[in-house]
Write a structure and sequence with these properties.
It is built from nine helices and 14 strands.
């Protein structure tokens, strides 16, 4: 059972949003979380349900390829229940696409420092052979990642990977801020959005041990690939709850 608390914004009646934080290649955890979402939909049907992955599907964890495949194709909604799916661009997807493009000689090294080698291995691509990457990474996966939007708005919420720059209207936000920003966003005590049109930002990107619930933002990167949990914020009307899964521990490894 989800424990709900008052939320800092609201959705129209009949709408529910499941927002999932940074997955980072943890396909097993994503499967389990998708299962909890499907179970909640079976137990509590709703007129309009939306699943939003907030970016950083890839890198660091063992199965980025599997996570991308799941974001493209699932999860299946329970019988009689529709589930709209949205995946946003994260900074790790941006790094991967820049490396694949090959226009910036420093892009590959930047990606590798941030976990890109694990992603390539999940597609059975040799990190030392960049000319083979476009052939070995399925075109459907590449096209999906290239088509990811940066932002989604619903009710009183804005969903992005990293955050918003304070003092800038939602429509004027720079792409780099939406996927990279930390300090100015995280420490901002005021209201985001235009005067008279405040928004609460739902974001990942900055891992914390627990979900962060503030008057102006909800942070749901809880360090799945670092031994933490994978978190889903459940938003409906004027309240919020959380679904979470932990890594599965084995004698010889951690299967995230």
């Amino acid at each position: 059972m989800i424990r709900f608390a008052p939320a800092p914004a609201a959705l129209p009646p009949g709408q529910r949003i499941y927002a999932v934080g940074d997955v980072h290649g943890c396909a097993g955890m994503l499967d389990r979380l998708h299962g909890l979402i499907a179970g909640d939909l079976r137990a509590r049907p709703v007129e309009h349900a939306t699943l939003i992955h907030l970016g950083d599907l890839i890198d660091r964890g063992p199965d980025s390829a599997g996570v991308v495949a799941r974001a493209i194709g699932g999860p299946a909604a329970p019988a009689g229940q529709a589930l709209h799916r949205i995946t946003l661009l994260g900074n790790h997807e941006r790094m991967m696409l820049d490396a694949l493009d090959g226009r910036d000689p420093g892009a590959t090294g930047h990606w590798f420092v941030n976990g890109g080698t694990a992603s390539l291995q999940s597609w059975q691509a040799d990190p030392a052979e960049p000319r083979d990457w476009p052939r070995l990474i399925p075109a459907a996966h590449q096209d999906f990642l290239r088509g990811l939007p940066l932002i989604h708005q619903a009710g009183g919420y804005v969903f992005v990977h990293a955050g918003l720059r304070p003092g800038v209207d939602v429509a004027g936000q720079a792409a780099d801020d939406l996927i990279w920003i930390r300090g100015p966003f995280l420490s901002f005590p005021g209201v985001f959005g235009a005067p008279g049109r405040p928004v609460v930002v739902v974001h990942g990107h900055t891992p914390q041990p627990e979900p962060v619930l503030r008057h102006n933002r909800i942070g749901i990167d809880t360090g799945a690939v670092m031994g933490g949990r994978l978190t889903c914020a459940v938003l409906e009307e004027d309240h919020v709850g959380f679904l979470q899964v932990r890594p599965t521990l084995h004698a010889d490894m951690t299967d995230c």
